[in-house]
Amino acid sequence: MISNKKSLEMIDIIADMFPNAQIELVHDNAFELTIAVLLSAQTTDNSVNKITKSLFKKYKTPQDYIDVDISELENDLRTIGLYRNKAKNIKKLCQSLLEKFDGKIPNTHKELESLAGVGRKTANVVMSVAFDEPSLAVDTHVERVSKRLGICRWKDNVRQVEDRLCKVIPKERWNKSHHQLIFFGRYHCLARKPKCDICPLLEMCREGQKRIKAEAK
Ligand code: SF4
């Protein structure tokens, strides 16, 4: 694992590459954001945006999701992965919102994580994007990039990756860094074909150097 100083230097380079990175899930409020993040598990943001365009016109409140038959909701979600499970969780989540939170998305980690289908990652995204509270959600891109760069160890679990990043990155930058790391992983350090040959981090990145050497053989 590399030092905090070197890790932050890398994060700074990534920040310069994607200064305007922001959430790509289209939403108008905390409720829509929560639904969109829940739907995005193991699915691309693009696929989610395609269905939420009509979904958010049809369902505007938690009560709207509760009133609809589960089979109709499943049908509305059928183009994305795990849609049956997601439909079930959305209904449960909406029920809890009405019973415990006056129909509103709560603004603490603990309360958010008490909702069906909402884990630590989703809670972190909602806290950061909807409530502007410092949080650093670790998704598949953030995890892969942090490990390739040596900021974290390959064996670290998601929580360890989050803790390490929160140690390395100043708190006031957590929210922005989350999006910048996602953009870096989504558009540059891609899972299958990272752009190592044009990467400004290549000199500092052991994984990239290994890949370049392997390609040259
Ligand atoms: Fe990713 Fe390659 Fe850049 Fe390393 S050198 S950060 S593996 S794109």
TrEMBL record:
Keyword 4Fe-4S on entry: yes
Function as written in the Swiss-Prot or TrEMBL entry: DNA repair enzyme that has both DNA N-glycosylase activity and AP-lyase activity. The DNA N-glycosylase activity releases various damaged pyrimidines from DNA by cleaving the N-glycosidic bond, leaving an AP (apurinic/apyrimidinic) site. The AP-lyase activity cleaves the phosphodiester bond 3' to the AP site by a beta-elimination, leaving a 3'-terminal unsaturated sugar and a product with a terminal 5'-phosphate.
Keyword terms, alphabetized: 4Fe-4S, DNA damage, DNA repair, DNA-binding, Endonuclease, Glycosidase, Hydrolase, Iron, Iron-sulfur, Lyase, Metal-binding, Nuclease
Named cofactor requirement(s): [4Fe-4S] cluster
Enzyme type, top EC level: lyase
Family: Belongs to the Nth/MutY family.
Record-listed [4Fe-4S] cluster binding positions: C189, C196, C199, C205
Annotated ranges, domain HhH-GPD: 39-187
Species this chain originates from: Staphylococcus hsinchuensis
GO molecular function: endonuclease activity
Name recorded for this polypeptide: Endonuclease III
Record HAMAP family: Nth
Free-text cofactor note: Binds 1 [4Fe-4S] cluster.
CDD domains in the record: ENDO3c
A Pfam short name: HhH-GPD
Annotated EC: 4.2.99.18
Known catalytic reactions: 2'-deoxyribonucleotide-(2'-deoxyribose 5'-phosphate)-2'-deoxyribonucleotide-DNA = a 3'-end 2'-deoxyribonucleotide-(2,3-dehydro-2,3-deoxyribose 5'-phosphate)-DNA + a 5'-end 5'-phospho-2'-deoxyribonucleoside-DNA + H(+)
